[in-house]
Amino acid sequence: MGEGKIHIRRGPEVEMAREAGHLAAEILRLTSESVRPGITTLEVEEVAVGLMRERNCRSAFYQYRKFPGHICISINEEVVHGIASASRVIQEGDIVKIDIGIVRNGWVGDNAVTVPVGQVDPETLQLLWATEESLHVGIAYAREGRRLGDLCSAIERTVKGFRYSVVEEFVGHGVGRKLHEPPQIPNHGTPGEGPKLRAGMILAIEPMVNLGTKRVEILSDNWTVKTLDRKPSAHFEHMILVTKGDPEILTPRARLFPSKPVKEGEGAAGEP
Ligand code: MG
After folding, report:
1. Which of 28, 39, 78, 209 could join 100 in a cystine, given CB atoms 3.0 to 4.6 angstroms apart?
2. What's the burial of 190, exposed, middle or buried (CB within 10 Å: 0-12/13-18/19+)?
3. What's the CA-to-centroid distance between 39 and ligand 1, angstroms?
4. 137 CA distance to ligand 1 middle (Å)
């Protein structure tokens, strides 16, 4: 993990990244609010595109490695990288993963959330809760002096505490002037391994968690990732700034499932 130099951002660079992050968070929140039974995934994407236009930013995903969409929108057993479609109608009981990345003044903001639509079965809701919790446990480890493996393993430990599985093929990443910068941030790892975290690093942390098997496949559209057993998957992402103190969430939003604040070393599944 973590091949390549990790950028340390300072002063005005941090301010630009923060602006991009806050904007990505606002667009994600407003787009999420449009999700309801009967709306198509293309209509949801159009909400996001309209907001990007109004706020003078553009999609970081559109045409990234030829990705055809402006956001990623993935339902139920789709893990990530779903493409919006006029023929895909959101139903009561679905869980909808929305991932929004924007570029503003040359800086990228990236974040994702899983939205439950109406009445969702309790087992699936628990998956969402656990995934969001694992994100916040991971964030609590994003501190100067910690190793990247401490953060990655904290996410894994939390997920496994719920007996869910972590998707290994897709990972979080450094973010800044580019959507994907070093380091890669897997949602599993070994404490004490990997690069040391330092103030000024900007990380996109994004656990992808499956109710059943960790195994996934890519569909014939070359993008959409699905669980092999077709059981649901959840995804939450924040972009954070490592500081000398508490990590700063650059994509602030209310938690879907508020819980007590996670302190370093007290994840849901405890210390190793
Ligand atoms: Mg990301």
Report:
1. 28
2. middle
3. 25
4. 17
